[in-house]
Structure formats: structure tokens, C-alpha cells
Design goal:
Length: 268
């Protein structure tokens, strides 16, 4: 390596370090060990944080409350008495175990208007499950509820949930699930075919966890792989096809991210 290259690298790392020193904000360690590895994280209106992990990779480091073990006769450990979800109180930094009974690996969730968290799908015994967590104030007890009388019409793994103007939730896609459905369930509709998801599926399934944003006109912007459409969920029709985005797939498993900025005007 030449002296010029060494000098360039030295200046590069020096300037990078100086730039990092000037960035605003600092990282702060709140909890050295939360007891679980959080796969999904959601902040409630009570300033608490729900951490959620998958359930079938062995015990965690956080014990469940007494007599709240989850049974699985098919596994070498017939009972798992450790938590796979916890609640972090940001005022006290206390961690409390929550009870998840079915597998939430690569599931999806969305808040309802009342602040309750609806969590859907997953793997294995969680494939068609719907779970609900209603947050509570400090000093009160709240936990996950696995709905017994309501399940998904189609199993969902790597789906996306989006709240709608009427307060309901649309659940879109998932592995080998090129359909949409709603919560609360619409019995007269069930799971509705959504051909766009099948059209953008490729060998590595780059149509998982599609990006979904509710637009001011009430329709949904849906992006998967490298394509996007404007979707009218009331009529189950694509009303607009957007130009292909160059550069390859963006969503899972290629694993980019998406955020909607403030919009104004007509997006019909």
C-alpha cells in the first residue's frame, strides 16, 4: 500500500471519528439484560414497551409467573416456564414477564384506536392465531390474551397489518398467503385474493412484510419487491400502478425499511 493511500485512510477515519463526535444525542443502556431477545417492540400510551420474541427456540432468561407455564408435549421440554414477551416500564426501568402461549416468530401487529395491541399469525401453533394486549397503568396487571373464538381465515407468516379509518385492521400477505383479510373479521368477505402479491413474488420471496401506508384519500400505498400499487380495499381493486423502483427488492427478506412523510393534496 502506498504512502498516499495510507494517508487517505488515516484522514478518512480521523474525519469520520470527528463527525461522529459532533452528532446529537447519546446512547443510554436502560436494562443490561431484558431476559429475552426482542423481535418485535411496541410502545404503549402508558409509556411502557412491549417486547416480543419467538417461542420455540428454547427457554429465555425471564421466568413466567408461578403456574403460568406453556405446555408442548411434542417437544423434549414438555413445559416451558420462561417468558417470551416482557413489559418494560420506562419510568422505573422495571421488567415484568408476559405470557405468550403460541409461536410469534415473524408475526405482525397493529394498535387499535383504544390503544390495545393486536398481534397476528406466526409460525407453527401461532400460524392462524390472533392475540391481544390491552396496556395498563403502573401498578395494574395486564397480559397477553390469546383469542379462542377468533382466528385468521388464512395462516399468516411475515404479513403486514395496517389500521384503517374506521378503526379496523387490514392484514396483508404473508408467506404463501397472497390475500388480505380484516380484524375484526368480516365473515361475509373472509380472505380476499390480492394478485399483486403473487405477481411480485420471486425465488427468494421478496413479497414478505410488504410496506403499507394509508394515504389521505383512504386508499393504501402497497410496495413489495420493487413495485408499488395504489389499492382500494373497499372494492379490492388496484387503481394505480407506480413505476418500478430500480436497484432490486427493498422489503423482506432483502430487508429495507419504509416511512411515510407528511402529504398534502389529492392522491387518487
Amino acid at each position: 500500500m502506498t504512502i498516499a493511500k495510507l494517508l487517505f485512510l488515516a484522514l478518512f477515519f480521523f474525519n469520520t471519528a470527528r463527525a461522529a463526535d459532533n452528532l446529537p444525542g447519546v446512547w443510554e443502556l436502560l436494562i443490561p439484560d431484558a431476559g429475552i431477545a426482542s423481535m418485535h417492540t411496541a410502545v404503549t400510551h402508558f409509556n411502557t414497551v412491549v417486547l416480543l420474541d419467538r417461542t420455540h427456540i428454547g427457554p429465555s432468561r425471564k421466568l413466567l409467573l408461578k403456574n403460568r407455564c406453556r405446555g408442548d408435549p411434542a417437544k423434549p421440554r414438555p413445559q416451558d416456564c420462561t417468558a417470551h414477551s416482557v413489559l418494560l416500564d420506562l419510568q422505573t426501568n422495571n421488567i415484568r414477564p408476559l405470557t405468550i402461549l403460541t409461536d410469534t416468530w415473524c408475526s405482525s401487529g397493529q394498535f387499535l384506536p383504544d390503544g390495545s395491541l393486536i398481534q397476528t399469525g406466526g409460525d407453527l401453533d401461532g400460524f392462524k392465531k390472533i392475540r391481544k394486549f390491552t396496556p395498563c397503568e403502573q401498578g395494574q396487571f395486564c397480559d397477553w390474551e390469546e383469542l379462542q373464538d377468533t382466528v385468521l381465515y388464512e395462516g399468516r407468516w411475515y404479513a403486514t397489518n395496517q389500521i384503517l379509518p374506521d378503526g379496523s385492521i387490514i392484514i396483508i400477505g404473508g408467506r404463501s398467503a397472497n390475500t388480505v383479510e380484516f380484524y375484526p373479521p368480516k365473515k361475509e368477505v373472509g380472505a380476499v385474493k390480492f394478485p399483486f402479491l403473487a405477481e411480485v413474488e420471486d425465488d427468494q420471496m421478496d413479497n414478505l412484510y410488504p410496506y403499507v401506508h394509508l394515504l389521505p384519500n383512504g386508499k393504501l400505498f402497497i410496495f413489495a419487491n420493487n413495485k408499488a400499487v395504489l389499492y382500494d380495499y373497499n372494492t379490492n381493486t388496484v387503481t394505480k400502478n407506480y413505476p418500478i423502483l430500480n436497484g432490486g427488492p427493498r422489503n423482506y427478506p432483502s430487508a429495507g425499511s419504509s416511512a411515510m412523510l407528511a402529504l398534502a393534496g389529492d392522491y387518487s
